[in-house]
Amino acid sequence: MTTIPARVLDPLTGSDADLAGERAVKRRRLLDILDRTGRDFLLLTSNTAMTWYLGGSRLHISLAGDPVAVLLVDRERDHLVTFNNEADRLIREELPADVVVHPVPWHGSMHEVVRRLSSSTPLDEAEVKRELRAARQSLLPVEAALYEDLNREVAEALTDVLSAARPHTPERQVAAELGARVIAMGAEPLVLLCNGRERSAFRHPLPTSSPLGRRAMAVVCARRNGMVANVTRWVRFDGSTAGERDAEARIAAVEADIFAATVPGARLDGIFDVIRSSYDAHGFGPDQWRLHHQGGPAGYAGRDPRVTASTDDEVVLNQAFTWNPSGPGVKIEDTVLLTADGVRVLSVDERWPTTEVNGLQRPVTLEV
């Protein structure tokens, strides 16, 4: 058992007081779950749950792999079980100071250590998935500030890279430049998409060597401090057609309907009903929603969860969302925060052209 010294704070993560306050609130939320279930131990195993609870600690090596640790929460303290080749880095660079680390040989079993630490069977994360989602719904002030910084920087990166792009620029070059910007800002590029004119029919266009042509889309999902910013932007090189302008305005109108439905107390399945009817109302037909997911709550997961007809979570204040309505050749996507004054867009770069839609400035296609 190793007691962790105070970690060295990254300038992006805030002050000691901010972190201590955030941690105390989150620990209380988990203890409330233990109280409601009558249990004494809770085992967290996912990146989403652990990075939220530990203030953005990076517990992965491969972005595509499982975490290299599990976290046992009891009524006295938090126990992180990890492999011996990971423990020193986590202690020095990632973890809050009051977590107790239990190193395991790299070839050993983390869950065997958990069993030794628990006097009764721990509550598994999967058993309280909904409760954990609710615990991280409402962002604390320090989280909201960090999240807004990340979203702004992602929006700025998209402005810089797409402003410099040209019709002959390969999709992979756009993705590479965006990825370099994301890494330089201390974030992790979870998703980098780009399509040129010839591939505009694809909703999830992994970049290829194809040139952008006259019109292109770029998408960035970047994670920092455990939170994920999701932003889409479009660029055009030879002026717009009437059909393009019409479709872009109609998809923005769909998004405006979704924003209007995103209010405290609304249920996600109710918002999903609004989404389905809005596509038809704005000329996309009744089945367009079937061709791509529509987004949902955001924060410590890309979508937490994706909205469907069966997700009945209630919307709360200070909750983040990324809605992403799309149609043939059009899509609109920003990360927003629901405040007492309504929806506030976080992924904003003042240099990007916008138009007002229902009182919000929304991005339009950049004309280069």
Shape: globular
- CATH fold-level topology of the largest domain: Creatine Amidinohydrolase
The share of residues in extended strands comes to: 15-25%
Helix/strand/pairing class, anyone?
alpha+beta
Rounded to the nearest angstrom, the distance between the terminal CA atoms is: 59 Å
What's the helix-strand series? EHEHEEHEHEHHHEEEHHEEEEEEEEE
Percent of residues in helices comes to 25-40%
Tell me about the largest β-sheet. Answer: 6 strands, mixed
Mean pLDDT: 95
Low-confidence stretches: 1-13
Question: What is the number of independent domains?
Answer: 2
The CATH architecture category of the largest domain equals Alpha-Beta Complex
Counted by DSSP, the helix tally is: 9
Radius of gyration: 22 Å
Strand order of the largest sheet: 1-5-4-3-2-6
CATH homologous superfamily of the largest domain, by name?
A: Creatinase/methionine aminopeptidase superfamily
The CATH class of the largest domain turns out to be Alpha Beta
Number of strands: 18
